[in-house]
Design brief:
mainly alpha, globular, 6 helices
Length: 154
């Protein structure tokens, strides 16, 4: 269910990104448009305390493991920022380097770091028996999914 929810969210985000890219904004790069669409999508869903399209369709609810309840607004916004800004920062870091050789090296290091964290965590997710965390940012903040509404014991 977690992977299905993630795939549905990705499809919805792609539609949102295509809509935003049709706006007459010429000076923004593709990574900037992705950042805007991700911040809009996750900020208006998870940030406001609502389920994403994928979570709602798969019957899942995000909970804070410490509080055993829906995460407080600070933790939700921290997740949104981690989820959206880390990939954007990685794509922009190379553009801020003054030397072309440093820029290529920085891009390579940041891509390896980003991919290493993402794919390493994904491998850990599949290897782990309970598959609780699909994203490293949720693991870092102690956020987890539960089935919602709970199934009736029939």
């Amino acid at each position: 269910a977690l992977i299905r929810a993630h795939e549905q969210d990705c499809l919805f985000q792609q539609d949102l990104l295509q809509t935003i890219s049709r706006l007459p904004i010429r000076h923004l790069q593709h990574s900037d448009l992705e950042l805007i669409s991700n911040l809009l999508y996750y900020g208006l869903t998870t940030g406001r305390g609502w389920s994403t399209v994928g979570e709602a369709a798969c019957g899942m609810r995000l909970v804070d493991l410490k509080e055993r309840d829906y995460p407080q607004v600070g933790k939700r916004m921290a997740w949104v920022l981690l989820r959206c800004l880390f990939p954007w920062f990685g794509s922009r870091l190379s553009g801020w380097m003054p030397n072309a050789k440093l820029s290529i090296l920085a891009r390579l290091v940041m891509n390896l770091l980003t991919l290493g964290i993402d794919y390493g965590h994904l491998a850990w997710f599949y290897w782990q028996t309970n598959g609780a965390y699909y994203e490293w940012s949720k693991r870092l903040l102690g956020l987890r999914y539960i089935r919602w509404p709970p199934r009736s014991p029939i």
